[in-house]
Specification:
7-stranded mixed β-sheet; Spore Coat Polysaccharide Biosynthesis Protein SpsA, Chain A; alpha/beta; 37% helix; 7 strands
């Protein structure tokens, strides 16, 4: 706990057997109350290893995609009583040692969302980020900042912290099950006026770290721009599905004469 708030770390996992132990070993247990891993139908021993490590483990019977994995993770964390939820990729690309700092920023009440940025501090290229990914990251981020009206250093990090209040307010089920989920979620956050903070995070690129290929990156890039344009369209009165308010059932059924 931190400031009396229960902290959960969620690990959306797919074929993470080779990096899971290194990631979990650096999670600060004096702060983190719960660790939840959702295995998205991996082909390796990710789920078995997770259980052996004593992690609360959920397994999809078929692959639901990166966004679908996160939806399961967030629902589980809230269901298990988390006040602060930190999403960390289990591929050891991001430093788990920053969990305390990110949780503290949420617990302070100043921020509803905190992003672990690979761009702040200039460590992305030093950490091995391919140049083409770095350039694409910077260009997409510039376009998103202009369209959404934010001043973030990047929108594409896999290291994020959220307050319970924020997660309970977002219609995440309406977001994509694919990689663009992350950006649609940030657009939802901006659209609802939640505060977003950032912290500099070193990054590691190595063979076992997860990464999407060039073709998937292009599809992702167009999806990112589509999410940002969706924000502008809503301001014009045309809300895309992921930004539309969810239908809420009536408090009690209407009587029929």
């Amino acid at each position: 706990m931190i400031y009396g708030l229960r902290v959960a770390v969620i690990l959306p996992a797919y074929n993470a057997e080779k990096t899971l132990q290194r990631t979990v070993a650096e999670i600060p247990r004096d702060i983190v109350d719960d660790i939840i891993l959702t295995d998205d139908a991996s082909r390796d021993r990710t789920a078995a290893l997770s259980r052996e490590m004593g992690i609360h483990t959920l397994v999809h019977d078929k692959n639901r995609g990166y966004g679908g994995n996160q939806k399961t993770c967030y629902a589980a964390a809230l269901g298990r009583g988390a006040d602060i939820v930190i999403m960390l990729h289990p591929d050891y690309q991001y430093s788990p040692r920053l969990i305390g700092a990110m949780a503290g920023m949420i617990a302070s009440g100043h921020y509803d969302c905190v992003l672990g940025s690979r761009i702040l501090g200039g460590g992305a290229l030093n950490g091995g980020m391919p140049l083409w990914k770095y350039v694409a990251n910077r260009c997409l981020t510039l376009a998103e900042n202009i369209l959404i009206g934010q001043k973030l250093s990047e929108y594409h990090t896999g290291y994020r912290a959220f307050s319970r209040r924020l997660l309970e307010s977002l219609p995440l089920s309406q977001c994509s099950d694919d990689f663009v989920f992350d950006n649609q979620m940030l657009v939802q956050i901006a659209d609802r006026g939640f505060s977003i903070g950032e912290i500099s995070c070193p990054t590691r690129y190595f063979e076992e770290a997860s990464s999407i290929n060039f073709r998937r990156s292009v599809v992702y890039g167009f999806g990112v721009l589509g999410a940002a344009l969706g924000y502008r369209l809503k301001r014009l009165g045309f809300a895309p599905a992921f930004l539309a308010e969810p239908e809420r059932p009536n408090a009690r059924p209407q009587e029929v004469a």
